[in-house]
Amino acid sequence: MNTESLELAKTRYQAGKIAFESGQYREAVENLEKASALLARNTRLGGEVEIWLVTAYEAAGRTEDAIALCQQLRRHPHSETRQQAQRLLYILQAPRLKRPSNWMTEIPDLTALSDNESQIRIAAKPRKTSERKPPAEPEFVDLSQVNTKDNRFIWLALVVIGLTISYLVWLGF
């Protein structure tokens, strides 16, 4: 394998990871398949690319391809790849649990939203810019109205703290 094909494979691998993380699973599968074809399967990088390819297959709805690739990767020469393949295979072959419908939130189909955008703008009320409220002025408090006679707690706390410090000094701490 020459360095040019290795660099192309790494570029495809990075593009596949980015596409996968942004939710573009078909594009991720394409890039990862091309990267896998350029790399030797028994290398650490080749195994890493194929592990990502397994997750991309599953995300793209190609579970059978993901399981088949995991079964091949269980015999990979790199031990970490074998362990990841074994774990993924366990997850992929696990039985699907039924979720109650009240646990799920139905997401509405928004494909027709761009068609209705002009209708929404017409139906919406235009905002009146002249009805803005001026910023609120700060409210001043008359200090002669503030009750300062009920602050006996502060004096009590200060006396207790003073006595505690005096006691500790007397003990020699």
Automatic annotation (TrEMBL):
Protein name as annotated: Tetratricopeptide repeat protein
Species in which this protein is naturally found: Anabaena azotica FACHB-119
Superkingdom of the source species: Bacteria
Keyword field contains Membrane: yes
TPR repeats: 9-42
Span of the signal peptide: none
Membrane-crossing segments per the record: 153-172
UniProt-listed PROSITE patterns: TPR (PS50005)
InterPro entries for the chain: TPR-like_helical_dom_sf, TPR_rpt
